[in-house]
Design brief:
Layout lengths: L4 E6 L6 H14 L4 E6 L5 H9 L4 E3 L1 H4 L3 H9 L3 E5 L17 H7 L4 E6 L6 H12 L5 E9 L2 H11 L5 E7 L8 E2 L2 E2 L11 H12 L2 H9 L25 E6 L4 E3 L2 H9 L2 E6 L13 E4 L1 E2 L5 H6 L1 H11 L5 E4 L1 H5 L3 E3 L5 E3 L6 E5 L5 E9 L11 E8 L1 E5 L7 E5 L2 E6 L1 E3 L2 E4 L2 E2 L5 H10 L7
Parallel strand pairs: 1-4, 1-5, 2-3, 2-4, 5-6, 6-7, 10-12, 10-13, 13-15, 15-25, 16-18
Antiparallel strand pairs: 8-9, 11-14, 16-17, 18-21, 19-20, 19-22, 20-26, 22-23, 24-25
């Protein structure tokens, strides 16, 4: 399979990967290419910028979350497109300091994709050559094909940088000047997602123009075209044929989707439709009641802490959710959705707001990051997603903590690597909720179990 592709890597975090990758996607699209964006790692926010630039939902490529399904996600979504893959952190930063598992370099090797390295050129000249030489030779199996210098201060510095790397077998494909006004806005969880706050008027146009003027797009396309043929796996994660007859009556699953709840992996949404789950969007912020005839609810993560006044005011939708819960039909929630199912959420200013009250706990925002990283989870009880003892890989990242009045029926035993971490989440009756983010494309059997547990259901 011929897939023109490139990985945009960085020497470290905050080097400008998202800004440049987004601009590059938009510039290639302007040249008439059908561009598919990707993000290495468990990120919900950066992909929203890719989607705005390309017009196609961006995909995540994460070894831990997707496991053996990673190549299926890539091959099925990249077919017929030009693939631009934004890396994570520094190029060799992975789950450990030794193997580099899950790093940008690891994914580049797995996909046999050439790499363009972003280098922050602030206050550097010939030293940049030593830096690039190290990245080029550290792992000979990584095809480091080009470099883009970012935050270049002057034409003189640009000339010195190009002279410095001339002796290396790495092509300079761009020199981007310092443009403070093109920095993307950030807050406590990182960049502000496009789905919540649209890009400022003209931003994407200006970014596309900047990249088009300062990156040699013909060189970039040549590097992408030189990627070797991609050996796609025979098995497909999403069937290309219509669902079988037994799935004609799909389960209607209400999915929370608005400015407060927007953290979902698009591949998982695609997959749900092939497993007998029809996703029906609703807004806890704006809707007065749930859509009719639902068979289940799915509340993802997001930023409920920034919309607590409106969430608390909307008593109608919360009562509708409470009435639905009494039907004993499944409710699945992650992180922000998990907090929303509690009794109250306290914001950063110590103001408390009542929420749905389905779980006997309260949540409180904190000034410090409480938990971040990959986790292995083991179901502590049989539920609609799987039997007791089911093992899953997930990720957590939150500036909040929850407090229970009594020990709850926990959803998971979590592990950091091989070390038991803590009991976490809530699984009781029809509710499974946790801080743990799952990528269902890595565990399609969970959605299959959900559908099978309600076979014959047709809404209420």
């Amino acid at each position: 399979m011929h897939i023109p592709r490139i990985v945009i890597a960085g020497t470290h975090s905050s080097v400008g990967k998202t800004t440049i990758a987004t601009g590059l996607m938009a510039a290639l699209k302007l040249r008439g290419r059908s561009v598919q964006g990707y993000k290495v790692g468990p990120d919900y926010i950066d992909p929203s910028y890719h989607t705005a630039a390309t017009g196609q939902p961006s995909r995540n490529l994460d070894r831990w979350l997707l496991g053996s399904y990673l190549n299926s996600v890539f091959s099925q979504s990249a077919e017929g497109n030009w693939a631009v893959i934004e890396g994570v952190m520094g190029m060799f930063d992975g789950m450990s300091g030794t193997s580099g598992f899950g790093s940008t370099a690891d994914i580049a090797k797995e996909l046999q994709a050439p790499v363009i390295l972003i280098v922050d050129a602030s206050s550097m000249a010939r030293s940049a050559a030593a830096l690039i030489h190290g990245f080029k030779t550290f792992d000979p199996d990584v095809n480091l094909a080009g470099v883009i210098f970012n935050r270049v201060k002057s034409a003189m510095q640009e000339k010195m940088l190009e002279e410095a790397v001339r002796e290396l077998d790495v092509e300079v494909v761009g020199n981007i000047p310092r443009e403070v006004n093109l920095q993307l806005s950030e807050r406590h969880l990182g960049l502000i997602p496009v789905g919540e706050q649209l890009l400022e008027k003209g931003y994407l146009h200006d970014l596309t123009d900047l990249v088009s003027r300062h990156v040699d797009l013909e060189k970039v396309e040549r590097i992408m075209e030189q990627a070797p043929a991609y050996a796609a796996p025979e098995s497909k994660l999403w069937p290309s044929t219509k669902p079988p007859e037994s799935m004609k009556k799909k389960l209607r699953i209400g999915i929370a989707w608005d400015e407060a709840f927007l953290f979902y992996y698009h591949d998982a949404l695609n997959l749900a439709g092939t497993k007998g789950l029809e996703l029906i969007p609703f807004s806890p912020l704006h809707d007065r009641e749930l859509p009719p005839a639902l068979d289940g609810l799915w509340l993802g993560g997001g930023f409920p802490e920034l919309h607590l006044d409106k969430l608390a005011e909307n008593q109608n939708i919360m009562e509708s959710i409470r009435q639905f819960a009494r039907s004993e039909k499944p409710i699945y929630a992650e992180c922000g959705g998990y907090m929303y199912l509690g009794e109250a959420i306290t914001d950063f200013n110590s103001h408390s707001y009542p929420v749905t009250g389905l779980i006997p706990m309260t949540a409180e925002m904190t000034s410090r990051l409480q938990n971040m990283g990959y986790r292995q989870g083991i179901f502590q009880t049989t539920n609609f997603l799987g039997p007791k003892g089911t093992v899953v890989h997930g990720h957590e990242f939150h500036y909040s903590q929850v407090t229970y009045k009594n020990n709850p029926p926990y959803a998971y035993q979590l592990f950091r690597g091989d070390t038991p971490d803590r009991l976490e989440g809530y699984a009781c009756h029809n509710v499974v909720a946790s801080y743990l983010h799952l990528h269902f494309s890595g565990y399609p059997e969970l959605l299959e179990h959900w559908a099978a547990s309600q076979s014959g259901g047709s809404g209420s």
